[in-house]
Amino acid sequence: MSKLIHALIAFIFLNCLWWLASVSLNQNMLPSPFAVYRHLFAMNPSILWLHTYNSLVRLFWGMFIAVVIGFVIGVLMGRFPKINQLLDPIVYLTYPIPKIALLPIIMLLFGLGNVSKITLLVLIIVFQVVLSVRDGVKTIPKSYYHHLYVLGASQFQQFYKITLPAAYSAILNAIRIALGTAIAILFFTEVYGTSYGLGFFIMDAWGRLDYLDMYSGILVLSLVAFILFQLIDLAETRANKWRKTD
């Protein structure tokens, strides 16, 4: 409950700043929050839902593919030193490359549709998942595995009882860090080669000088990001309960 109250206070505070800025500027380019909220609730919800749905589909598949690939590679690098020695230089050489610079190449290879947008999201997120999972698995004391092995635990039982909880927590931390970047990149990619998505909706409204539509789209995108972060926190809370009761 206290977390909800803090979020509500922050929401009111940010809207007060927004209102003060709109009053000070007194121009159409920065309408008051009251005008934007009235416009948002008066809009056809099916239009916003169509754009939101397309953005969520791209974001979901980008993060899902990145998590699966990053989880497998991260666990292998964390559990097997030889694999880590082989892949570590590759990861550190490719990780610093700004992936957004690869967008023209990705679009040439995969076109302007969803595949190129999802591919870019995967490239951005997967490295953070790999490194987080690898480091999380590497921090597990080897004695933990030895104790279970002495008790007759199979390789799968060792993985389920020891490796998986550490990797799961690392994945959630990586997703939390990568989510903000992923949403920003998704917004950027939706400007090109698509007619649906919150990024397209916001930039199209900006091009039409429809500032009420533009700020409404920004609010919806912010709400989507907030809900996703809350879902990650909920998953982490459940994971901690699972680890305590396991």
Specify Rg, calculated over alpha carbons: 22 Å
Beta-strand level of the residues, as a percent range? under 5%
Low-confidence stretches: none
Report the count of strand segments.
Answer: 0
* Protein structure class: mainly alpha
**Average pLDDT reading:** 84
Write a concise synopsis of the structure shown:
With 246 residues, this protein is mostly helical. The protein has helices spanning 2-25, 33-42, 45-79, 81-94, 103-110, 114-138, 142-150, 155-189, 198-207, 211-245. The protein is globular.
Structural notes for this entry:
- There is one protein chain.
- The chain is an all-alpha fold.
- Helices cover 83% and strands 0% of the residues.
- The chain contains ten helices and no strands.
- The chain has helices at residues 2-25, 33-42, 45-79, 81-94, 103-110, 114-138, 142-150, 155-189, 198-207, 211-245.
- Helix 5 (103-110) crosses helix 6.
- The longest helix has 35 residues, at 45-79.
- The chain is globular and about 70 Å long.
- The relative contact order is 0.12.
